[in-house]
Prior knowledge:
Residues 325-353 are annotated as: Disordered. Residues 117-159 form the B box-type domain. Among the domains are: 13-57 and 70-111, 2-Layer Sandwich (Herpes Virus-1), CATH 3.30.40; 168-296, no CATH class. The chain has helices at 3-8, 13-20, 45-55, 96-111, 143-147, 159-267, 272-291, 313-320, 327-352, and strands at residues 34-36, 42-44, 72-74, 81-83, 93-94, 132-134, 139-141, 156-158. The protein has 9 helices and 8 strands. A hairpin with a 6-residue loop joins strand 3 (72-74) and strand 4 (81-83). The chain is mainly α. The chain is elongated and about 170 Å long.
Amino acid sequence: MDYKSSLIQDGNPMENLEKQLICPICLEMFTKPVVILPCQHNLCRKCANDIFQAANPYWTSRGSSVSMSGGRFRCPTCRHEVIMDRHGVYGLQRNLLVENIIDIYKQECSSRPLQKGSHPMCKEHEDEKINIYCLTCEVPTCSMCKVFGIHKACEVAPLQSVFQGQKTELNNCISMLVAGNDRVQTIITQLEDSRRVTKENSHQVKEELSQKFDTLYAILDEKKSELLQRITQEQEEKLSFIEALIQQYQEQLDKSTKLVETAIQSLDEPGGATFLLTAKQLIKSIVEASKGCQLGKTEQGFENMDCFTLDLEHIADALRAIDFGTDEEEEEFIEEEDQEEEESTEGKEEGHQ
């Protein structure tokens, strides 16, 4: 690396030296140890190892018990192919000269005072300080540029006056921006409060809505249980009546069956005297049994349970019509229903007359 020629070409040797000490991989000043490649370019050994590992992903790392051949990668500066042996980047030679230069540079930088107020120099006239401001081009320049250079026909002003003016303008802009930021922050705070209150109100109305629907569910369940109980009661009464009739008819049937068997046995009696002793009473019993067949019966439609049917269509329509609304809308809806009921009642009375 020809440091001398590079430093002579620039008016600021320290700045140019720093540029020469920048690693092309991490773009920072070389970190020791610094290795020199066969192409004479330098890298931080860590950076060299990173690109070597990237180019040779299956290469065994240093210290492994498995011995493998080396790999290869390309110099990031000149693209020259660098062939490594089994030691990898640890087989590259350290550039002690560059490491010493880095130490000297850091010592020099630490010993030099900070030059926060160092005066910038004109790029066109390197020996001239920038001391005026071109109002036409709106750029700072030097006196030589005004007398002989590109700003010869431009309007200029003292640097200090423009500096104070633009500094004041910048301060005003900062104040305006800060005030704007304060307004924005106030709006953000208001919006955050609005978001919080919206969440709280939403939670509250959700709870109220859930409670109202739970009440409706409870009313429906209660009414359902009541109506089912009434149906069950009617069912039990009818079934009890039918069971009683079945029992009565079964008893009558059993009695008649026995009389038939007795009568058949009497018919088989060969002696007239014996037959006559029992025949009259048997005939009387059969006649009475025939009269006893007039037992209770179920009326026509006894099994019908149509009296327990419900027309819930209007209630279903009312449930489907449930929606959010104001109190005024609810009052208007109630008034309309009352008016319809009154008109219906009046129509019925006129019909009766």
